[in-house]
Amino acid sequence: MEDVSLYLEPARTLAVVGESGAGKSTLIGATLGLVPCTTGQVTWAGASPRYIRPALVMQEPRSAFNPHLLLRRSVMEPCVAKRLQCDPSRLQRLCDGLEISTDLLDRRPSEVSIGQAQRVGILRALIAAPPLVLFDEPLSALDAVTQKHTARLIAELQAEEGFAAMIVTHDLGYAAAYADDIAVLRAGRIEEIGAAKAFVAEPKTAYGHRLRDAAFALGALERAA
Question: What is the DSSP letter of 9?
Fold first, then answer.
């Protein structure tokens, strides 16, 4: 990756879109502090990622959990790692917001649906109140109805919690409907970046136009048009 500069604000969502191989996974790794930056740095409020520990919601819901552990134990891992006491009322409130029964947490990953597993993954990401949450294709494993429902739940919880979100996705329709800003990544470079509504109305680059027009042709931008 080269010349990638992004700025995230609390309570706002940045969607990073681009074709396979554009560098989206590398960007997530660098933001998490797992991929070293040869030049430049990643900071949040003056601290490096290893100190702020941003949370990650992974693409494959079930494989994101230890198959041998009950979901409740996996959900509590961020609190254990940060040596935090989890307020039971917070757990209940997040479960209510994600429409998860707390009884569900006493099952193993193989005993819940993919949609339920993804919502439990979001619960685990939020349980320790991180300032920044990264979403790696959070809806791609879900059916269309569950995608829309889960996207709405994420947006509602972000409004309540105030965390900044970076969503890496191929789904331009989701990005345009739920993100405040869109960054177009191509071959490891930021092709363009700006407000989501402005991108849908008129991309700044020829590549952005191709992405936007293809999404319109597929009907993916109907929610944001």
Answer: -
- Domain parsing of the chain, residue ranges: 1-54+131-225, 61-129
Chain segment 160-174, per-residue pLDDT in tens? 999 999 999 988 888
List the Cα angle 87/91/94 in 5-degree steps: 135
* pTM for this entry: 0.89
pLDDT in tens, 167-195: 999 888 889 989 999 999 998 889 999 99
Q: According to the CATH classification, is domain 1-54+131-225 in 3.40.50.10240?
A: no
CA distance 53 to 51: 6
Helices (H), ranges, 62-142:
71-81, 88-97, 114-126
3-state SS, residue 219: coil
CB 182, CB 193: distance < 8 Å: yes
